[in-house]
Amino acid sequence: MAPPRSRLARRAMLKGITALSATVAAPVLARGADEVAPDTVRPPDVTTNPPRQWGANAPPAYTPDPDVLVIDRSFRDLLYGNAALHRVWDKGTWLEGPAWSSQGRYLLFSDVVTSQQYRYLWETGEVTVFRPESYHANGNTFDYQGRQITCEHFLRRVIRWEHDGSAHVVADKFEGHPLNSPNDVIAHPDGSIWFTDPGYGDNVAEGHADMPGGEANPDGHIRWKIGEELIGSIGGTRRQADHTFRVDAAGHIDVVLTQAQLPNPNGLCFSPDFSRLYVISSGKQPGGHGHDGDQAVHVFDLHKEELPLSNPRLFTNMRFEGVQMGPDGMKADVHGNIWCGVSGPVGLCGVFVFNPEGHLIGRIRLPQSVSNLTFGGPKRDWLFMCAGDSLYRLQVNTQGAAPA
Questions:
Q1: What pLDDT is stored for residue 238 in this prediction?
Q2: Other CB atoms closer than 10 Å to residue 300's CB: what's the count?
Q3: Cα 6 from Cα 58, distance rounded (Å)
Q4: CB 247 within 8 A of CB 235
Q5: Low-confidence ranges of the chain (pLDDT < 70)
Q6: Closest of 198, 226, 357, 334 to residue 271, by C-alpha
Q7: SMP-30/Gluconolactonase/LRE-like region domain: from which residue to which, for each copy (predicted)?
Q8: Cβ-count burial of 32 within 10 angstroms (0-12 exposed, 13-18 middle, 19+ buried)?
Q9: In what order do the strands lie in the sheet with 382-387?
Q10: Thinking of the domain 68-395, which architecture would CATH place it in?
């Protein structure tokens, strides 16, 4: 999705959060904050004034963390009570696509705007440049053989890095037409690769625009080839319809969801038993002329037959406290709960957690919208969250279901 407003704008938002917290605080938030005695120390959170501090110079964190909110008591079973939220890095621009490498014991993530990839090293907590030129990479995953798979906006393709270091193009065309800007990607144990292809990278900041007359450059004012000299080539030059694709182990690409079935597809994930596919339909973004998503999470039954999806239904409409939240990326845990990054007002944005029936059971408040998240660490019990220019983490009492 598009980068957030400037840091100055975020500071302005934080100045007004005292009033905001009075209007958006949910009556079912954790710890019964309104029942605390007046002389009890109240731990800071993202809706207090002054707001919670982050980073190396922040005071010790309170536990249980005031920004980890229990809505249904079942969420408590997924939490490690002694854990606190930490911001581990804040030198990015718009971070996306976190994926855990079990072999390398590092977290890979992309900065879509600066066109770099980084890795968070488990043993030291250090963040280092992984690829200084990533072609405006967005989503990442690792397949069941430990190979990195990446969506590249600038070249409008999905690639897989083989064990010998070579790059294999998984997909860059469908029926002879170039892709739009592959966004998020997941791997299936049968060797297939599933990815969404909206047009969010059809802009100057996150990729490149279309040629004159295309949806992302209808009047031709954008100098669409600028930046090509840095790399030597660009991807497709005219946006196609949105699709959600499946590429089988033999390399054959099929559409599993058309634009009519689910416009503006974004994040996607499987249930732990691979009986369901969850896909997010996001709102209109640059290049998205003529259609719009519903900013909801949809779920489909998954089969091995030629037509793999059936029984389409709404999982959650992502409305909370009268506000339409913006879902982006999501992951399932081993119990089938869905952890979803969301954008929205300060005090509401962060992570929403749903049980397999689609009921909201918990929230994680962060001062920035969360673009995507994943479970990492040697035991896969750390939740890593990409939010604007920052990377956050929280230890939990569950594990991620996917390999990355």
A1: 64
A2: 21
A3: 23
A4: no
A5: 1-40, 201-217, 219-238, 285-291, 305-307
A6: 334
A7: 96-386
A8: exposed
A9: 86-89, 390-395, 382-387, 372-376
A10: 6 Propeller (2.120)
The three state secondary structure string of 324-383 is ECEEEEEEEECCCCEEEEEECCCCCCEEEEECCCCCEEEEEECCCCCCEEEEECCCCCEE
- Triad 160, 271, 335: Cα angle to 5°: 125
Calculate the dihedral angle through the C-alpha atoms of 110, 151, 336, 104, rounding to the nearest 10 degrees: -60
- What's the CA gap between 52 and 58, in Å, rounded? 8
What is the per-residue pLDDT across 319-331, written as a single tens digit (0 to 9) for each? 999 999 999 999 9
Task: Note the pLDDT tens digit of each residue in 372-396.
Answer: 999 999 999 999 999 999 999 999 9
In this structure, the number of other CB atoms found within 10 A of the CB of residue 110 comes to 32
Sequence-ordered list of residues with C-beta below 8 angstroms from that of 266, at least 6 positions apart, any chain: 1, 183, 184, 196, 198, 200, 279, 280, 281, 282, 293, 327, 328, 329
Tokens of 340: 């979803």
Question: How does strand 157-161 pair with strand 148-152?
Answer: antiparallel
DSSP string, 109-142: EEETTTTEEEEEETTT--EEEEES--SSEEEEEE
